[in-house]
Amino acid sequence: MVLKSIDRKMDQLDMELLEAIIDNPYECATIIDTKGIVRFISHYSKELIGVDPAWAIGRHVKEVIKETNLNEVVETGRAKIGETLFIGGRVQIISRIPLRNREGKIIGAVGKGMFHHESKVMDIQKRLELINSKLKYYKDEIKTLKGSRLLIGQSDPVQRTKKLALQVSSSDIPVLITGESGTGKETIAYYIHGNSRRAEGPFIRVNCAAIPPELIESELFGYEAGAFTGARAHGKPGRFELANNGTILLDEIGDMPLTMQAKLLRVLQEHELERIGGIKTIKLDFRLIASTNKDLQEMMKKATFREDLYYRISSFHIHAPSLRDIPEDVPLITRHLMSNLNQEIGAAPTDIADHAMEMLKTYKWPGNVRELRNVLERGLIMARGEQLNPEHLPERITGIWGKDHSPIQNMGSLRTTMAEVEKKIIVDTLQSVNGNRIKAAKILGLHRSSLYEKMKHYGVSE
Length: 462
Description:
By secondary structure, this protein is an alpha/beta fold. It has helices at residues 12-22, 45-48, 53-56, 61-64, 70-76, 118-145, 156-169, 185-194, 216-221, 239-242, 258-270, 296-301, 307-313, 330-345, 354-362, 368-382, 395-398, 414-432, 437-444, 448-458, and strands at 30-32, 38-41, 80-87, 90-100, 106-115, 175-178, 203-207, 246-251, 272-273, 282-283, 286-292, 316-319, 351-352, 387-388. The chain has a five-stranded antiparallel sheet. Strands 7-8-11-6-12 form a five-stranded parallel sheet.
């Protein structure tokens, strides 16, 4: 009889009930004394963990189950609930609990399984992996999401953009946002998400241009354990799984490899996917927003972008205005960016001189809002006083102004001037990052290949 210490007054039925609690096929309990010697092990252990009970009794628990740390529970007196242990050829979730007598003295410990069916264990692990992946993603994105996600501006183009974004936010149809690099396409996407019924759900951004072609499938759709060399032991959920019940933004979708476009189309049509190496279909509920600075219709003519995918993602189209199209909004956007940057940098100027603001309004901003933010960040670090002055701005902005802060006349054709300005921006940016092309491309909001092409065109080297 297992329960030798049970009160003698208990009848046979009571004893059988108590023994059934300890020795059952669902928990497969192992009990040790204070020296770590196995005093009891379930007779189901041979079937569930591959240990012969007759052989195990009287041996040290580490000799019986090499992977266990049950003896540490005796030493520390602290329970360990819900930890994973690879035992019997499979992963199991184990509970380890110290045993005390009526005086509170530790007299041993019991270890028992919480789930012995591998499918349940794997299901729990996948859920935990999904939660951990979401947590990591949110930590990585916290700087991006920091601050207000408002569409700043009072100009007609900005007001039209706001109106369209609000109109489409009430539905779940796919949205395509086009516009030059740095125009705030992601901000528009987040504005749509924030005003939709999915606002409390996740907002997952995927930069299609930044993911190597060989990794984009696993990033989007995830993979199961052992799917390929270097895969995580328990697999990994993809970005579409992270976006379940929320919104996914496929940023720079024009850079997605043609081979991936067909796989993406199926997921968008069926709202389901299979992880790489998996056989289970995962149903998903997400809202798609795509963005690009490329001409997708021109790409379709060249067969570099699928026509069926284009019509799937472009049910509703919004074009983000460039900064040079809304010069009247430059002061509002500048002060908004300065406020956010001041919180990040600390002790930075909170005001800007009138002449400096006029220079910002006149400049053509080929890099749009992203370039403006970069200029302000640099200027705020350089400034020592209470305001940002013209001398804190780059020469490409101040160079077209005379000493009296009036624009220099006869600057030549717009195309020539813009080309000179763009070249100057590229040179200045490369110098600021010591020739690191990857960093420069990121600052400029360009794909690396686009930066290389422009450097070649202008004859720029590191």
